[in-house]
Amino acid sequence: MSQLSVYFSGIGAKRLSRVEINPGASNQHEFNGIDGFRAIFGDDRITFEGTFLYLDDNPDRILAEDGSLTWYNARANHPTRTEYRLYYTTNSIISESNVDDLVVIGRTGENKLAIIIASAGSTAEQQIKWLFGLEEVANRFIIRDIVADDQVLNFAGRYVISTFGFEVEDIAPDYLPQLLARFGSTFPSTAIFSDYARSTVEDVSAIEEPDTTLLRWLEREEVLFKTLENHIVSQRLDLGFDGNVDYFVSYSLSVHNRRKSRAGHSFENHLASIFRENEILFSRGKKTERNNKPDFLFPSIDNYADLNFNTDFLTMLGVKTSAKDRWRQILSEAERIPNKHLITLEPGISLNQTTEMQEQNLQLVIPSPLMETYSMAQREQIITLIDFIHLVRDKQERL
Q1: Alpha-carbon span 273 to 268, nearest angstrom
Q2: Residue 323: helix, strand or coil by DSSP?
Q3: What is the pTM of this model?
């Protein structure tokens, strides 16, 4: 498993002030209260390659841009005084930011920095604070030496790191001979691969611990998929593309799209297996009104289509690997069911979002190992997978 220090050696976090982001207030292009970074950057002048990232609950507002930053002592010629500054080049990320947005400056390499800005009150903000162990953050930098206080990235940690654009490189080379013997240098269907991944995981119980089992299965499939993908894609890259840029771009997009599609189907595959092992009746991906296809209907699509069937015994579960704004899509997927359920792997969804879900009669379902990323107040309104199974089983037993 990856350590957080693989991605960051140290970070500083604060709230943005007006003078840092508003060119009308200042032309400094510098972050304030920066002296604490001497523990991470040292005392010598250095120029960093910078990756600027803006994160927001609205996917259309997520931005990324490259730039540069210079760390220097503005009082270098003074015999007794020091005044360290971090100068950044003009970029759209800073200009799009707002006062009180959370900024994290992290050293990701010898001469590389990541500047991650999350809009105030957003899911990204809550995830960042959880990942780096930050409580409330004010307008002066809080410094964290990640190397000195390292941590293993669990499921939630790897999820958050991936939202920063990092590739989490967990593979299992020992499984490659078995993978090639079973599938060759081709990708099997997601259903077949999910079934194989489950077969390689021991000491889990879909009945006694469905929440933990779900994440174990998902983690194993992710590692096995990346192991096989690494082998297949490496072979293709070795063949080259004869200078055909369009062909290379097309192949790159196919790799990206396969990853996205597989993740969603994998989630559903493992949930279906858990429901079957718990003897829960369900229909998966069946059409309701206006050709909508809820991910799961309980006890069946036939019961849903029967207008004489008591709606109290109907349940709908939407499945989203990430929630963001996409959770609203499920609100119209089964009109006969006013109170809907959504299960997601998104850690630390913002209070704004979870409150709105409640107002829309949407019950959030979170696997129990991810609960630590939510506030205590939020946890009172969230149920786990085993809670959901008990709810559906109780309805089924009363039919």
Answers
A1: 9
A2: coil
A3: 0.91
First to last CA, the chain: 45
Q: How far apart are CA 91 and CA 333, in angstroms?
A: 41
Alpha carbon distance 315, 343 (integer Å)? 13
Name the DSSP letter for residue 152: B
| pLDDT tens digits, one per residue of 211-232 | 999 999 999 999 999 999 999 9
Strand runs labelled E in the chain: 10-15, 30-31, 46-55, 63-73, 84-88, 102-109, 112-118, 142-145, 283-284, 296-298, 315-320, 340-344, 362-365
Pairing of strands 102-109, 283-284: unpaired
Q: What is the pLDDT of residues 344-395, one digit of tens each?
A: 999 999 999 999 999 999 999 999 999 999 999 999 999 999 999 999 999 9
Burial (CB count within 10 angstroms: exposed 0-12, middle 13-18, buried 19+), residue 183: middle
Q: Are 105 and 37 in contact (CB under 8 A)?
A: yes
- Position 328 scores a pLDDT of 92
Distance of alpha carbon 324 from the chain centroid? 10
Burial of 169 (0-12, 13-18, 19+ CB in 10 A): exposed
Rounded to the nearest angstrom, the gap between the alpha carbon of residue 355 and the centroid of all alpha carbons in its chain is 20
For residue 294, which of 226, 340, 230, 237 has the smallest C-alpha distance? 340
- How far is 126 from 119, CA to CA, in rounded Å? 10
Active site residues: 304
- C-alpha angle 170-174-178 in degrees, rounded to nearest 5: 115
